[in-house]
Amino acid sequence: MAAAVPSRSLLDPVERVISVLCLLLYHERGRSRSQLRREVEGYQGDDESFEKLFAWDRRVLSELGVRLIEQQSDDEEPVLRVDHDALTLPRIDFDEPERRALELAATVWDDDALRRDVSRAVGLLVAPSSAPTQQAVMPRVVPRSTPRLDTLMAAAVERRWVGFDYRDARGALSRRRVRAWATVRVSGQWYLVGWDADRHDSRTFRLSRIETDPRPEQGDPAEQMSLPGPDFSLREVHDRLRGEEEADTLRVWVQPGRAQSVRVAGVPAPGAEDEAPAPGWEAYEIPVPAHDGLEEMLGELLGRALPDAQASSARQRLGRWWEQARRVHAGSPDEAVLRAVEQMRPPKRGRRRSSALDWAARFLDIVGIANREGGVTRAELRERFGLSEAELTTHLQLLRFCGLPERYYAGWLFEVVEDGDVVRIEQAEDIDAPLRLTRPEAHRLIAGLATVEQMPHHDPRLGPAARRAADRIRVELLGEDAPVGTSAHQGGNDSGTGHDETAASPAPAPVRAGSDAAEPSTESVAAVATFWDVRADPDVVRVLDQAVRDRRVLSVSYHSVHGDRHSTRVLEPVELFQEGPRLYLSAWCRVTEQARTFRVDRITRPEATDETFSPGRRHAAVATTARPDHKRTELTAVLRFAHRIADLADEYGPVTQARLEDGSRLVEVGLVDAAVAHGLVGAHGGDVEVILPAALRVQTRERIDAALTALADASAG
């Protein structure tokens, strides 16, 4: 959504940037800095003011995708001119499934900056009249907003060197110098993948552990391995970070009717009654999660699920996990932590502000679309750029103040001519098509298309169409060769271990002979990559998706972790949606006769009945009232999240927070009940600590003691 009418302090630089562009287009042989300084309104101040303004304007033009070339002229002073060959967007005739895939890619992102870039790109590439309505029920990827993501994405596009302070999984803080290869989102977390100059190896860095703003660094020409080689695969990085290598299995015993998360993840396994930890316990076989996944899965249950007696290693690991949690809850919290509680403040909320860059881009997009089409309807402009009728009117009014500078070119501002519903822009013939997508925009669009390709679709053409559209953008907009085995789509496994600062194997091959290690690679490795990281059965998703479309009543088995219960539900499904790495179904539940939200990874055996339903008032309210109730709380607690999982606190909506010297994060959060705190502590083995209230801390320690006793009794038996 566009911003309201901008202030004069915002419009002045917008008009100035467009004046510079129009002047350079009008004078094809270029203009010198002194000529621009004389002719452009706002450049007539002192030398220092001019240099600052001119440097800012050049940077904005670059970010708009305008490439400026500086060359010698007949005079002594060099001139700047626009690279016309790389200025405007070529037409690409996407077929109907490719257009639909592009439209879906525009809905993938929920982060403001990413959504803005991709929506603009799709608006320029696909005419709304030629594409059908977007699928209302397609799950959306909602990546967590991460500080410094935009900077690192841009660095990855250009394969630049950056430096930053980084706190590794052990808590050690060090300065890192990295050549950025890619930013990749895995299970809701963003990672930087690149070449670590000091360790002389490829590494991955979790963005939430980067402590300082990334700064440009000087590259090392001797680093001949610093570019990704032909065997490098982001899919392998993804699979390693997510732990999708082939997993061993483990037999686990669960209490009668409890441990629903284990029941969903596993399958019933044979087990003799005398092997059970207690009468009535049932055996399940589960895949062993990677990294700390086993401790987290069983730790959260605090004794309701225990590894089989033969799995001594797993029992020892779980025991050590809970012992760590018990140690941090022994006695009262540290005095330094209690003092930090008094310094807690509300977290800073990022607020989207429309910038001069946004307004200049939108103005030039409107001019380019109108000129390329010989006139465009107001309806199409609204659709392409997400503008309301009033906002479009404001944009067209303000466009009349842009163009060649009036000081030397009187009467050469843009003329907006409206003939009925059709808009034409005159005296802007040099901008005869939209400006090309910038490289970051193109890469983010390709990443969105890669995510669309991975999603389950009711139309089997959409996945292949998303890949074709991405490849066409690489070839026709970025000038790359069609990717062969080097894109983020490629499969594969990785033998590396660890969550971050790990080898992004396989190691890159040496730079090709004759290449310059300081220049960006020409390999088709995606600089921005996302994966549809929803831990839900695609077949289940397809059944739910089709039921939403057909308005068909569903019967499902649901395993509720909160309360640890299993039930059969009869649902009138309304919407599939995604929050963070989780996928949800909102529906009217006929069992409870209320709007409810169900986590899709806890739904099993969905069956569409022969009965359909007609949307009514209760269904209209479901989409807004049946969202996960993060705000429903029965108690307020102060928790400490260790640096290793500090960003996990965001899922609980901190009211106030503070940072400790070791990177830990103190947060004040609302919880549904005490069981949520107990589960968090049990799942994270000392990385989550209850600070306040004191009674909740004592209850948590008692629950840990009970879990350790149950584990010891089962081991002794």
From TrEMBL:
User: Boundaries of each PafC HTH domain copy?
Assistant: 361-474
Q: Which UniProt keywords apply?
A: DNA-binding
Q: Where is the WCX domain?
A: 635-708
Q: Where is the WYL domain?
A: 149-211, 540-606
Pfam families documented for this protein: HTH_PafC, WCX, WYL
> What domain of life does the UniProt record list for this protein's source?
Bacteria
User: Region entry Disordered: which residue ranges?
Assistant: 210-231, 479-520
Q: Name one GO molecular function term.
A: DNA binding
Entries under PANTHER family matching the protein: PROTEIN PAFC, PTHR34580
The name on file for this protein is Putative DNA-binding transcriptional regulator YafY
| The species this protein was found in | Micrococcus cohnii
Taxonomy of origin reads: Bacteria, Bacillati, Actinomycetota, Actinomycetes, Micrococcales
